[in-house]
Specification:
Layout: H1 2-18, H2 22-38, H3 40-47, H4 53-63, H5 69-80, H6 87-101, E1 104-111, H7 117-131, E2 134-141, E3 148-153, E4 156-161, H8 162-175
């Protein structure tokens, strides 16, 4: 299924890029995916075989009136091809393509306690300088890491948490190499 999501996301991305509407399409696709994610009734309606394709397209048309034609046509195509359950993966793939196009690098900083804004900003600036990309920062507090930080930069993870160090030490002791 991942391959299908990539194909659909790439197709929508190319149409949006050609129409110079990448930001609009990204926003509207996100709104639809969020609405479907948050509503069990919408999920049942759009994913269930009990409703006909025509009923789904009509209902979707009423729900997204005013949407960009590229988004409306894309969603109707997903319904016609019975690919609506792939909507969330398509959104993820579209986001990745949008980030690449705009040279945005998502960065998540996880710490055991809330970091001050200056520290978070400094980490983001440093990563931005090293990568030459715009950094989209997100800071998360997770007391389970005990201390230190975990940096997720794009798809790469740097785990400098105390929890990770203790786990590595536990493995060494279990192997008898400590």
């Amino acid at each position: 299924m991942e391959e299908i999501a990539q194909v659909y996301a790439r197709s929508l991305f190319e149409v949006a890029k050609a129409d110079d509407k990448l930001d609009v399409v990204r926003e509207q696709l996100g709104q639809v995916a969020d609405a479907v994610s948050e509503s069990r009734d919408l999920q049942v309606f759009l994913f269930s075989p009990y409703f006909s394709t025509e009923e789904k397209i009509q209902g979707l048309g009423r729900a997204i009136s005013g949407a960009d034609p590229a988004v409306a046509n894309f969603l109707a195509l997903l319904v016609e091809k019975h690919r609506m359950p792939a909507l969330f993966r398509i959104r993820q793939r579209f986001e990745a393509l949008w980030n690449e196009e705009n040279r945005v690098l998502p960065v998540q900083i996880t710490s055991a306690i809330a970091l001050d804004d200056e520290t978070v900003r400094a980490i983001g600036e440093r990563i931005g300088e090293r990568t030459g990309r715009k950094v989209e920062l997100r800071s998360v507090v997770d007391p389970d890491i005990l201390g230190g930080i975990v940096l997720q930069v794009g798809n790469n993870v740097l785990d400098a948490s105390i929890r990770n160090r203790l786990e590595n030490l536990r493995k060494q002791v279990a192997r008898g190499t400590a």
